[in-house]
Amino acid sequence: MTTQQQPTYLASELVAQVRERSKGRLDARLSGEDVVVKRFMPPQSAGTGDMAFLTDARYADAMKASAASLVILREKDYEAVFGAEGRTQGSVLLCEDPYAFFAFASQLLFPVAATPGIHPRAYVEEGAEIDPTAAVEALAVVKRGARIGARAVVRSGAYVGEDAQIGAECLIHPNAVLEAGTVLGERCVVQAGAVLGGDGFGFAPFRGEWVKIPQVGRTVLGDDVEVGANTTIDRGALDDTVVGEGTKLDNQIQLGHNDRIGKHCVMAACVGIAGSTTVGDHAMIGGAAMINGHITIPSGSAVGPATAITGWGEKPAQRTGFFPALEGKDFQLTAATLTRLPQLRKDLKALEREVAELKALIRKEEA
Predict the structure, then answer these.
(1) pTM of this prediction?
(2) What's the first-to-final CA gap in the chain, in angstroms?
(3) Most C-beta atoms within 10 A of its C-beta, which of 41, 240, 241, 359?
């Protein structure tokens, strides 16, 4: 990502801004001098002006010896690392979640660089509304009726279709495509090559042919959604395809038309979800998982990598599993057998005990 000249902060200023950016949910307590900091570094290589954070006990010794101006760790870890005498050089920030502090603070230390305004080589149609603080770079295309919010950035070569809406502080990377009617909340990130609002895979079978069904819904993203490079999210057939607030999508994911993805979900690369499937809040989907259409995955569920999901019950669960491809009927028989394996194992153990008892009885009678 292109960045401005990296800013510096007093530790107290950084704490205050992290508190604000986390909506008051993450606070920290400074112990020692209010030092000036500019970057994060590993504890073993940090020096003056650097910060180091601890989340893994394996790095406790490196943290203890670190020359960082500011070290960040949980209060319960402080004495374990520095002993009763405490840290004798530099300052300390005690924080409930050092890794989250690192994430929020890094956003402040590495702001997105952009010059507000419309580049003369951008193509903006009459009727588009672009906030004066937004940036539209060279060769970007913004069609009529589109609206781009405050401090949003549309990078070179990106396409924003008719009546699309981009919320405040969104970042649209080069060559991303937002088709007509696509809606983004605030602070969304769309990485290069992603396509939002392309036609869903909708065709009606008719006498051996496939008849296209026009896709007239939209793709709608909530606030703070991130979409990875070359990920595609189809527009709805009639209703909208929706991705909830705070959800993070990795590269090369496919979401089918009319999918409903909940809030604060995370999906790794190459996940494929067929149309009209609902995924509840806080779900975690591993890389290359394949999920059938027209099912509901409850909130809090997890799907392992390379796992095929063809159905789900009413309760949240963690599911992982795969086996090699088979002929259709063999697959059905194998799948049915696999679901019975726990009971079959119990039955087998019971039979083994019975056989052992019979053998013992026979040996006793023979004796």
Answers:
(1) 0.85
(2) 83
(3) 241
Tokens representing 58 are 């394996």
Confidence of residue 5 (pLDDT cuts 50, 70, 90): low
Task: Please tell me the total number of residues recorded for the chain in this structure.
Answer: 367
Residue type at 238 in one-letter notation: L
Q: What are the CA-CA distances from residue 235 to residues 83, 182, 195, 255 (Å)?
A: 57, 8, 10, 9
Q: Strand locations in 116-201, DSSP E?
A: 117-118, 123-124, 129-130, 135-136, 141-142, 147-148, 153-154, 159-160, 165-166, 171-172, 177-178, 183-184, 189-190, 195-198
**Catalytic residue among 257, 264, 282, 294, which?**
257
Q: Domain 9-109: give its CATH superfamily.
A: MurE/MurF, N-terminal domain (3.40.1390.10)
In this prediction, residues 223-250 reach a mean pLDDT of: 98
Q: Which CATH superfamily is domain 117-319 in?
A: Hexapeptide repeat proteins (2.160.10.10)
Name the residue with tokens 């699309």. Answer: 164
Task: List phi, psi (to 5°) of 331.
Answer: -60, -45
What percent of the chain is predicted at pLDDT more than 90? 90
Q: How many CA atoms lie within 13 A of 227 on its CB side?
A: 37
User: How far, in Å, CA of 212 to CA of 167, rounded?
Assistant: 32
Per the annotation, the verdict on 119 as an active-site residue is no
Residue with tokens 């020692």: 32
> In which band, very low, low, confident or very high, does the pLDDT at 366 lie, cut at 50, 70 and 90?
confident
Structure tokens at 274: 């067929």
Among 350, 342, 338, smallest CA distance to 310 is for 338
Q: What is the pLDDT of residues 90-110, one digit of tens each?
A: 999 999 999 999 999 999 999
* Cβ proximity of 104 and 28 under 8 Å: no
> Token pair of 106, please?
């890094």
pLDDT digits (tens, 9 = 90+) for 22-74: 999 999 999 999 999 999 999 999 999 999 999 999 999 999 999 999 999 99
Residues 6+ apart with CB under 8 A from 277: 256, 259, 260, 291, 292, 293, 294, 295, 296, 297
Domain range summary for the chain, segments of one domain joined by + = 9-109, 117-319, 328-366
Q: How far apart are CA 152 and CA 163, in angstroms?
A: 16
